[in-house]
Amino acid sequence: MNILFLTLSRIESVKNRGIYTDLMREFAKNGHKVFIVSPSERRFKQKTKLLREGNVNVLSVKTLNITKTNFAEKGIATLLIENQYFSALKKYFPDIKFDLILYSTPPITFTNIIKKIKQRCNAKSYLLLKDIFPQNAVDLEAFSKKSLLYKFFRKKEKRLYALSDFIGCMSPANAKYVMDNNPKLNPEKVEVCPNSIEIVLEENTSNNREEKKRQLGIPSDATVFLYGGNLGKPQGVDFIYDILKSNNHKEDRFFMIVGSGTEYNKIEKWFREEKFSNALLLSALPKNEYDDIVRLCDVGMIFLDKRFTIPNYPSRLLSYLENKMPILAATDKNTDIGSIAEENKYGFWCENGDLDTFNVLLEKYIENKSLIKEMGVNGFYYLSDNYTVAKSYEIIMKHF
Questions:
Q1: What structural domains and CATH numbers belong to the chain?
Q2: How does pLDDT run across 194-204, given as a tens digit for each residue?
């Protein structure tokens, strides 16, 4: 088949690792021709360009800044991007008959382009639902349900769901939420198609691991807790401060915070002012360097703001499980990322903001290194059985 994939994630090469590039490689590996359309934001100062890599074509379309910018530019960019993508498709792939359109949220504003391609090519459409907007913005009090902005975006969300032949949700709770809040949807087109990766096994030698820890100032016998990913309002990052403050000067534990986002400067200010003795903050790293950091750590942390009513399922879980790290999740009560981890014995959960419980769970890992190893292996096997791109490919292709 000819597969068209529309995304807001920046993809420069399908060879790079990530939940979308890994999945696109899986389609290509199975003989399909893949056409990716992704943004090349204004700040990168690059023109629209096409890169061909075997069965995969990556079309990077020049857009305004969608990420790491002010609210006004982000809003304008999101509204303009659909026409920019459609113009680029007509110029670079004018004669391609697409059989399947894959697209991820955000955004929810691709409705017209999907509709036009479906009509022209008689194609099927599959939504990879990674974000439930505008409700997530309401949860974080960006605007209210009574606002015109909410009504405008909610209408677009409903249109996108109706237009999609199939909707792949990240988890069972995620799928249930979509069906409960969109009763007109045919439940047969809603299914679980989780975040997934192509597993790559790379082991640090013991000597190499200790040398890197020494370079970073990490005590060799400390239990290392890692948070890697977005540092924004959705993560409820104030709780990270409480954790670091309550565990400061305890030499048997060390915290690595790696990422970027709207709250990064705030966190950087904490580190300057508090001078945490057992924590290190690093800005976002290239994927290969980040993977090196992950392999130095023992336990992966996941944070979500406690106000969320929608069940998010952060993809950073995957790199933890791939590296046989158990998790410690502090989230809202609606996501099932914690309950799935506890049921399958690869992690612990508490509500974001519950510092006493979080620290009790922290101590369980510190006091029992064999528990870390055992739960890490459990997580790796759960990843292998449920969160691989081969599994996601199978879920999508059963419809065709």
A1: 2-193 (3.40.50.2000), 206-386 (3.40.50.2000)
A2: 999 999 887 66
